[in-house]
Amino acid sequence: MRADVRQVADGTYLVHGNNVNWVILKEGDAVTLVDTGYPGDRPALLESLAEVGASPEAVTAVLITHAHNDHLGSAEYLRAAHGTPVYLHPAEVPHARRDFLQQATIGDVIRNAWRPGVLPWAVHVIKAGGTEQHPVTAPEPFPAADGAPLDLPGRPVPVHTPGHTDGHCVYHLPRAGIVISGDALVSGHATARIKGPQILPDFFHHERARVVTSLDVIGALDGDVLLPGHGPVHRGPVRAAAEQARERAARRTRAGGAHP
Length: 260
Description:
There is one protein chain. By secondary structure, the chain is an alpha/beta fold. The protein has a single domain (4-254), classed as Ribonuclease Z/Hydroxyacylglutathione hydrolase-like (Metallo-beta-lactamase, Chain A). 28% of the residues lie in helices and 20% in strands. It is built from 8 helices and 12 strands. The strands form 2 sheets. The protein has a 7-stranded mixed beta sheet with strand order 1-2-3-4-5-6-7. Helix 7 runs antiparallel to helix 8. The two termini are 29 Å apart. 49% of the residues are buried. This is MBL fold metallo-hydrolase.
């Protein structure tokens, strides 16, 4: 597939891959890459860099929202081939090394196969290399204090939003009013029947209760553009998007855990 690159602000691009997104932040010739798609997205990833006038050598750093296979796919490739540092929250560093794995298992998928969209999604995951493991050999914690912007193109600020995984982070771009939300807050998914701000179906989360709590953290960030790990760009107050996701999550709980 070809990369679907959408410019959402000056130097900021949301790229749609195989049912997953990554973000390119560009300043001059230098780039910060947030997430890397599935392993099978590598040609599209490289193509997306070329489309914005960059190259793998121009990637100053890879930032990972969380170390699931659909976000970590080419991180080790860039680190090994080009010396690109791969940064994550300290709690997510061992996850990226695959010291452990906080991800939906085959058993989870089988138990949820009756839900609309799950089987087609699972077939797609296999085709995209989503069952492969590509651990990052030498992932690194963020080179800045908590709450401080990283000295990288886009000046992203990591914000810890645990629940989907222990070390999940969103990235706030205060000057642009943008939140890169990973899988803590999405605007759609192949297994979801609704569109717009929501959390992923419950079986994808390591600790669903913490995902819901982290919506308050996201809602406190100043911004009016949401770049999710799944789904299209969402425009409107980030606080309202987080509140809508929280309300939908509460309705799902009252309905006994059914899909939204």
